[in-house]
Amino acid sequence: MPEEVGIPRFIVIEGLDGCGKSTQAKLLADELTRQGIQTLHTCQPSRAPTGQLARMALKGEVPLENEAMALLFATDRYQHYHTEVAPELARGNHVVCDRYFYSNMAFQGIDPAAMKRIMAYNQGVMSPPAKRPDIVFFLDVPPEECIERILHTRQDISIYETIPKLTATRERYLQVFELLKESDNIITIAAAGASEKEVFNKIWSHLNKKLE
């Protein structure tokens, strides 16, 4: 790692459910911390009441229409950014976040009009004084492999965790990244069939380049 590590770095890990992003976010935050870099490991939906409601909706415990889901996630994101992420960045610390507004657009942006509205919902998050991430890692894993991982690791399945839904979501992720390729620093990590260590090494290599 370079000596100058005091620059605030907002790092986001994105991907389909079951792609391993939560594991990689923790591994990355732990390694940064181990190297003496003050780092917040956090996630969206958040652990705040808005995030808890969002998690209930994901489990199907609180039935919501797609538009309501999009608004709920944007609301939680705004609260989470301004109460957790922004204060850490202001202190000069790093932040590793499991999901950000890209998930909102990919999961709830079911058509071009919906995607455009969701982008508008998140303007409060993406505009000053809030900011886009310095770097985004998208873990690209086929939906079939994601479902297999999910079924082997847990019993609770979200309303989005079917092969058809994850396939559509992956396609929308790619649309979002194409839309934002000029403004956002997005790195796609080919993670299909790769071990946790192999994926982490790819992320770490790109991050070292970013921090140079």
Outline the secondary-structure elements:
Blueprint: E1 9-15, H1 21-34, E2 39-43, H2 49-58, H3 66-90, E3 94-98, H4 101-108, H5 112-121, H6 123-126, E4 135-140, H7 143-153, H8 163-179, E5 186-190, H9 196-211
Parallel strand pairs: 1-3, 1-4, 2-3, 4-5
Helix pairs in contact: 1-9, 2-3, 3-4, 4-5, 4-8
Describe this structure in words.
This protein has 212 residues and is of the alpha/beta class. It has one domain (9-211): P-loop containing nucleotide triphosphate hydrolases (Rossmann fold). 54% of the residues lie in helices and 13% in strands. It has a five-stranded parallel beta sheet with strand order 2-3-1-4-5, sandwiched between helices. It is globular, with a radius of gyration of 16 Å. Residues 1-6 have low confidence and may be disordered.
What order do the helices and strands follow? EHEHHEHHHEHHEH
Would you identify the CATH H-level superfamily? Answer: P-loop containing nucleotide triphosphate hydrolases
When the domains are counted, the total is: 1
Largest sheet: 5 strands, parallel
Beta-strand fraction estimate? 5-15%
